């Protein structure tokens, strides 16, 4: 098991390289792409930490990471060699936080009843960024509790446009009116 301090060390080393090469935005985009891919393909992580021949694992990393910055590929390779690839996502998440601070980006979540297209997410990110006066990136998660519409959470701010929120508002209004002697 890799200690948290070691994960932070890897993340800081990657951050130093990104800053030195003036590619923080590029690295930010690449690591988010990698994180999303790793979340969708957990078998890939298990495969790289398995007992299959190291040469095959190296070839796999080189193929999968062929368009990824050398520093990220090298860290992936080192972790694979040490059978610690399962910690790669943790390291990238730490690096992601550092880069968000530098790039002044705040990450949020958009909950919807079904997966949103990247085009739709980009449009919503632009509107929310303009509304909150800061760069916002959104990760789409499915929420089966929503009846329709969406809910956005950025830090402590919640923006909700769903049937569920409208029903809740209607219920609250009816309760308030009945207490006031209205309805």
Question: What can you see in these coordinates?
Answer:
- The protein is an alpha+beta fold and 183 residues long.
- It folds into two domains: 99 residues, N-terminal domain of the delta subunit of the F1F0-ATP synthase (Peroxidase, domain 1); 75 residues, 3-Layer(aba) Sandwich (Glutaredoxin).
- The chain has eight helices and four strands.
- Strand 3 and strand 4 form a beta hairpin.
- Helix 1 packs across helix 6, helix 2 packs antiparallel against helix 6 and helix 4 packs antiparallel against helix 5.
- The protein is elongated and about 75 Å long.
Q: What is the second-level CATH architecture of the largest domain? A: Orthogonal Bundle
Percent of residues in β-strands: 15-25%
SS summary, helix count: 8
Mean pLDDT: 89
Radius of gyration equals: 21 Å
Summarize this structure briefly.
The chain is an alpha+beta fold and 183 residues long. It contains eight helices and four strands.
Can you tag this structure with a few keywords?
Peroxidase, domain 1; 183 residues; 61% helix; Glutaredoxin
What's the helix and strand layout?
Blueprint: H1 4-20, H2 24-40, H3 42-48, H4 54-64, H5 70-81, H6 88-103, E1 105-112, H7 118-132, E2 135-142, E3 149-154, E4 157-162, H8 163-179
Parallel strand pairs: 1-2
Antiparallel strand pairs: 1-3, 3-4
Helix pairs in contact: 1-6, 2-6, 4-5
């Amino acid at each position: 098991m890799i200690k948290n301090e070691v994960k932070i060390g890897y993340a800081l080393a990657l951050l130093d390289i990104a800053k030195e090469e003036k590619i923080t935005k590029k690295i930010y985009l690449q690591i988010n792409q990698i994180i999303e891919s790793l979340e969708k393909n957990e078998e890939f992580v298990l495969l790289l930490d398995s007992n299959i021949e190291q040469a095959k694992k190296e070839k796999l990393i080189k193929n999968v990471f062929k368009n990824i910055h050398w520093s990220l590929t090298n860290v992936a390779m080192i972790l694979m060699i040490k059978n610690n690839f399962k910690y790669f996502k943790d390291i990238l998440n730490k690096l992601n936080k550092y880069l968000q601070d530098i790039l002044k980006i705040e990450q949020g979540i958009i909950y919807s009843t079904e997966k949103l297209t990247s085009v739709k997410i980009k449009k919503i990110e632009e509107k929310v960024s303009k509304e909150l006066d800061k760069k916002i990136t959104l990760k789409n998660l499915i929420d089966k509790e929503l009846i329709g519409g969406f809910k956005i959470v950025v830090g402590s701010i919640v923006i909700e446009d769903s049937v569920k929120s409208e029903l809740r508002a209607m219920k609250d209004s009816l309760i308030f009116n009945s207490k006031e002697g209205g309805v």
